Amino acid sequence: MIPRKGAEVAKISEKSLRDVLEVRRSLEELAIELACQRMSEEEIDNLQKAQDDFKNAIAEGDAMKIAETDEHYHDVIYEGTQNAKLIQMLNNLREQMYRYRFEYIKDSSQHERLVEEHKVIYESIVKKDKETASHMAKVHIDNQKKAIIRQIRTGAGEK
Questions:
Q1: How far apart are CA 108 and CA 115, in angstroms?
Q2: Which of 2, 68, 132, 144 is deepest in the core (most CB within 10 A)?
Q3: How many CB atoms within 10 Å of residue 16?
Q4: CB 98 within 8 A of CB 148
Q5: 48-72, pLDDT tens digit by residue?
């Protein structure tokens, strides 16, 4: 809090970004591998719908809606793990992940890449191809980390 100015959002540091995304990367990789093994047909249908909603939000260009639909896409995968402890751990990171997700999504030059990454993850889950799905999960998080670090270093990050 700043007197007579209200709350100010803390700047994103590279260290906190790296720490959170390092944990997210490992947990998400596990989640996607488990989802490949355990997702029901209904959950796969829900993932397809979540992917479509995300693509529609991208087309509309509303950053808040993009972030919400992206988060929902990942939530469907988490639910598909059928592992309550893993879901709980991912939910514990939710607020921090959302902050970085929103920063990444504000950069519209990344949108097509995000759609393509989601598509590959979805198709890999449908095929139960853990290796491709796991690899794309890592790429997905690494691309987010690189883009946000670029924003931080050029001063385009959260103010």
A1: 12
A2: 144
A3: 14
A4: no
A5: 999 999 999 999 999 999 999 999 9
